[in-house]
Write a structure and sequence with these properties.
- The chain has helices at 54-80, 101-128; strands at residues 4-6, 9-11.
- It has 2 helices and 2 strands; from the N terminus they run E-E-H-H.
- Strand 1 and strand 2 (9-11) form a beta hairpin.
- Helix 1 (54-80) runs antiparallel to helix 2.
- The longest helix has 28 residues, at 101-128.
- By secondary structure, the chain is mainly alpha-helical.
- It has a two-stranded antiparallel ribbon with strand order 1-2.
């Protein structure tokens, strides 16, 4: 009797004939394979992803609020700032020129972005610890 693997099950017909090949012709891959060893389930590492704790969620909301207020404040200041420079001065940077108030707010955003985001990125995990 020859067993043939059909999908995930082994099937034989009545009378001992193997399903699918007439019973007397062995096809390639019809040999029985040794069962694969089952890998033991490893315990979860202490570094594995876990759902955030209540302190972690609170710290995340605090960080979102901090960054949101910073970005909103800069956006409002940029929209309200004047694009004009005082009379008699050139507009721009360097060589005695003065940036406009709107350009000054944009420079402030560029120079404060890294520290604000960096401090927030460090403070959130420490607060959730």
């Amino acid at each position: 009797m020859v067993n043939v693997v059909i999908g995930m099950s082994t099937g034989t017909r009545a009378g001992g004939e193997a399903a699918g090949n007439g019973g007397d012709v062995a096809r390639e891959g019809d040999q029985e394979q040794a069962p694969q060893p089952v890998r033991p389930v490893r315990p979860a590492s202490r570094y594995a992803a876990r759902p955030p704790s209540a302190a972690g969620r609170a710290a995340g909301w605090a960080a979102l609020l901090t960054l949101g207020l910073w970005a909103a404040g800069l956006a409002v200041a940029y929209l309200l700032a004047s694009d004009a420079v005082p009379p008699g001065q050139c507009q721009g940077l360097g060589f005695g020129c003065t940036p406009s108030a709107r350009d000054s707010v944009a420079l402030l955003a560029v120079f404060t972005a890294a520290p604000v985001v960096g401090v927030t990125a460090v403070a959130v995990p420490l607060a959730a610890w």
